[in-house]
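WARN  no MSA supplied for this record, continuing single-sequence
INFO  ligand: iron/sulfur cluster
INFO  echoing inputs
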Amino acid sequence: MTSVLDTPRTRLSGPEPSGQGPRRRLVVIGNGMAGARAVEEILARGGAGQFTITMFGDEPYGNYNRIMLSHVLSGEESDADIFLNSLSWYQDKGITLHAGVRVDRIDRFTKHVFSNDGRVTPYDILIIATGSRSHMPPMDGLYTPAGSVKPGVFAFRTIDDTRKMVAYAQHEHHRRAVVIGGGLLGLEAAYGLRSHGINVDVVHSAGHLMSAQMGPDGGAVLRRSVEALGIGVLTGSRTTAVLGSDRVTGISLRGGTDIPCDMVVVAAGIRPNVDLAVLSGLPVERAIVVDDRLRVQDEDDIYAVGECVQHRGEVYGLVAPLWEQAVVLANHVTGTDTSAMYLGSRTATKLKVAGVEVASMGLHGPELDTDEHIVFSEPSRGVFKSIVVRDNKMVGATLLGDSRKVAYLTEAYDRGLPLPEERIGLMFDFGTPDGDAGVGELSDDAQVCNCNGVSKKTLVDAVQGGCATVAGAMEATRAGKGCGSCKLLVRQVVEWAADGAVEEDPVANYYVPAIPLDKQALMAEIRKRGLRSVSAVFQALAPGGEDARSKMGLASLLKTMLAERYMDERDARFINDRVHGNIQRDGTFSVVPQMKGGVTSVQQLRRIADVAEKHNVPLIKLTGGQRIDLLGIRKEDLPQVWADLDMPSGYAYGKSFRTVKTCVGKDFCRYGTGDSTKLGIEIESRFQGIEAPGKLKLAVSGCPRNCAESLVKDVGVVAVEGGRWEIYVGGAAGAHIRKGDLLATVDDPEQVKVLAGRFMQYYREQANWLERTYAFVPRVGIEHLRGVIVDDAQGIAAQLDAAMQASVDSYVDPWLDRDDPQTPGQFRTSLPLTVLPQVPVR
Amino acid sequence: MSANHIPAGGKTFVLGPVEQIPLGEGRAFAVDGGQVAVFRLRDGSLRALPAVCPHRGGPLADGTIDLAVVVCPLHQHAFDLATGCSTTGADNLRPYAVSMDRQQNLVLQLPV
Ligand SMILES: Cc1cc2nc3c(=O)[nH]c(=O)nc-3n(C[C@H](O)[C@H](O)[C@H](O)COP(=O)(O)OP(=O)(O)OC[C@H]3O[C@@H](n4cnc5c(N)ncnc54)[C@H](O)[C@@H]3O)c2cc1C
Ligand code: SF4
Ligand code: FES
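INFO  complex generated
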């Protein structure tokens, strides 16, 4: 029992043994990167036994990795993948999370917080981690008369901001954007929008890009790299107004120039969220003032952490300092180490901004007459290096486009290491005592991955524990799994730790892991040696012999290359291709009767219904590709189900041509200008079943309203006025979202079939295994594809057409296996005897 | 009791002709109330493991194999065919002894 005389202050002085006495109430305001990390650190110190924890977060989500929003914007990452702590994490840890609830006021005398859902929550210890928000610099026309931000104007701070930007950027009428602010965030925003095919200009008020991180010379080199991405750059320009009455039509610059655009992204700096603190009478200067314990100045029970904090006059806007703060805070709050002190962070920024490696620390240029300034600049390669030396210590560095020496420089900067006589050794490897000096000289506790707080020692331990590949060590430690900017350093550490014995990650260049050849070299060898089966390829070309993980890719490649001359070995196929169905999580399979172009008939529907009834099909589901999926079929029942259906099956599995989605088209639709259904059926009939490096999903729409979603398909066709057809390639609407690129506009459906087939054949021959068209098309570039496929620039068009025709001609209906199994026990059950069915039945 | 449970006692089971299993593939057999996946490698040798993947219950006999491992079809965890040890960090399996008699029948030995 605690006596009434026990004030919270005295209880704070030592940790209570867990499970004894009432737990104190810990309340956290702000559920962002700092707030959630502080709680994780507290839990790691036994905090669950000491506290009942309540968190408030303005955003209606668990905690996510804010720095990954740039990747979400560019489509490299899906928003689902960036969550660090899902809502169930809070539940598991016994934390009460009020997501989507904002705290409006703190009463520090009665120790309560008041939130906008009317709740009053008492606390013993309070942590404020409210972060920052985007700063909207004053300009005319930013707001509508009603007071909201004008439609088309965006901030770039939260997951909601990012989702809205993506949706807006993908709208077909939105072609042009202006990003206000040429710092880290602005460039990331510009890069992200560019990958949605939007034309982007960056307007920056300072004289050069990223002026907070580097000097004018570096800025000039960066500008070239950014412009090479197709992004326009205007420096020394200030935006004075947003134009347009109900939505954005452009911006005005000081001096009178107007730039027309459909969207404006404001990335002109951040402002700490301090309203709450000010209103509650806490000390605020530029941000909430804290001491070396992260305690709010003159408060006993209130801590603050993250971007909302001012410590010794500094406000930090990167995550690395937040992690250091969270550790000190947790040590104090839990009483684990009451001598812990936060003395500030030296910020060294290591980032990949708009695809360019950027590292920056300390001074950008010389300040005293005695400062040495060493500069190397190679603008054509986008490389720039600048180092400032004072009293034989490094006091600043900027690296652009080549961060090989970044580890060594960071360490030299952080610890004031003595520098080599020959200064050039700071910039290039040949000057240092040996090539590995950079990493070798790093201290054990040097943090390699800032996002996940992985030290050099942790990585080295992982390598010594047997993870001798970069990917393996990353997997084991989570290093490099955050923003990814440290991947190069991770690689260097792993290579150093493995002492040259680092195993290459073969998947990187090889077509399949077991054969040390890229796709084109592998194809050449196969041709040269006349290999016709997967086992023959292993025998001839795989140093380690047969390899399970390489089989499927090889089978696909051989089939593509050889058509009917391919010698099929069933064991080289994945189970889906052995039994012609898609394996489900419970080991059953699915059957998808063929419905070309999504068209069916009364007879077919009746037959499908009868079969579903006869076989007690647990789930009947319409697929995204306009077909009917019969799920939960046992392997041994497949042949009978196919026989009872007595209709061709559809491709719903495997890396192959799958389906053509169509809209109603001109026969029925009021708007239709082309017969999309007919063309869809013809395309599906022609290309059914052909293998490819990844699945191929197609669509045909009868007019630009695009009801079949043609713009986000591997190949999408759209009828336009005048009986013409547009062909788009490289679209996707799955985990990745991408609008396809316009390949060609042609006059008739026959040409559509020719060009679509030629594109698919080129993709089959050139793409890496499992590389979908949405990655392939941007990799080789639409201009290149147009050259090869439409203009026959390489003179291989006839060859591509013939190869595709051979594949089409060699098509055999695989479902005929039902009457004539290809291998003994092809459809024999592999299931455990007891556990069917696990797939939920609705 | 899991579907894999096979009572101890060192029993021998004859599972029929080896041709039931195509080269380079696996097949599942119901043995003594449990299930065993028997694999016939491309070099002709035989291996046997429990039929149920310890990860999420995937059907191992449907996996893809080479001379060393079987890769589960559901989430691609791999298991050493000789030792049953997972090479991808899943739980390990306990292998069974399997051989062929003179009539080319599969002979499975359950552990004592
Ligand atoms: C697009 C983008 C890219 C970035 N890239 C990098 C990078 O590459 N490297 C790097 O180091 N940093 C990067 N940053 C900066 C980094 O994200 C921030 O430094 C970090 O998120 C700050 O953490 P925080 O917890 O202090 O604030 P936040 O993460 O902003 O969290 C604060 C949370 O508190 C909530 N909140 C605010 N007020 C209240 C209230 N009154 N009641 C309840 N909840 C409230 C907010 O809604 C928010 O969810 C990037 C930032 C952005 C936006
Ligand atoms: S895409 Fe055009 S033709 Fe096809 S259904 Fe929609 S509106 Fe009609
Ligand atoms: S069930 Fe076998 S890998 Fe997941």
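Chain A is about 30% helix and 20% strand.
INFO  checksum written, moving to next record
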